[in-house]
Design goal:
Peroxidase, domain 1; 2 domains; 8 helices; 4 strands; globular
């Protein structure tokens, strides 16, 4: 891991630990989970916002004002809004993606959940997602939280990542394996 990435994870980890412990003490874990999910959605859907918080060119006050406006718009709790204001004053907003991921991981662990990353070639129906969750729950013995994404380059099938296990049933992977097998023969 590169040194800047390690430093970012360290900074994000300290903020996440403090936020998590405060929320747990005050019984606000559900609100913290909602806040983390909402911020994660903003980071995924707004590349402009993600670029703004990472930019060393934008002055601290402008970053703080922008983050406060976004926080107010998505309705984060007072605890999260205060933390974001503190991060802005210390020029630590660049760790927000790592903070969100760390918070989501801590909350899932507290709830006894495991997050499964599911990538499919086409959007999965609610019925398909329910069956997949039931299958994963049966195999892991834990509650499952699904993060589903679509990648049309898979052609068909799924890629499921659950903890350190990855199952790749995509047509793309099967074609790549076939291509490698043909290279070995010829």
């Amino acid at each position: 891991m590169s040194e800047p990435a390690s430093i970012s994870l360290s900074i994000a980890g300290r903020y996440a630990q403090a936020l998590f412990e405060l929320a747990k003490e005050t019984g606000a874990l559900k609100a913290l989970e909602t806040d983390a999910d909402a911020l994660g959605d903003v980071l995924k859907t707004s590349p402009e916002f993600a670029a703004m918080i990472a930019s060393p060119v934008i002055v601290r006050e402008e970053q703080a004002a922008a983050v406060q406006a976004v926080a107010a718009k998505i309705g984060v709790s007072t605890l999260m809004a205060s933390t974001l204001a503190l991060m802005a004053s210390k020029r630590r907003l660049f760790v927000m993606p790592q903070l969100v991921a760390d918070l989501q991981r801590r909350i899932a662990t507290e709830k006894g959940e495991v997050t499964a990353e599911v990538t499919s070639a086409a959007p999965l129906s609610a019925d398909q997602l329910a069956k997949l969750m039931a299958t994963l729950k049966a195999s892991s013995g834990q509650d499952i939280k699904l993060n589903a994404t679509v990648d049309e380059s898979l052609i068909g099938g799924l890629i499921v990542k659950l903890g350190s296990t990855m199952i790749d049933t995509s047509v793309k992977a099967k074609l790549a394996a076939l291509q490698n097998a043909m290279k070995e023969v010829g």
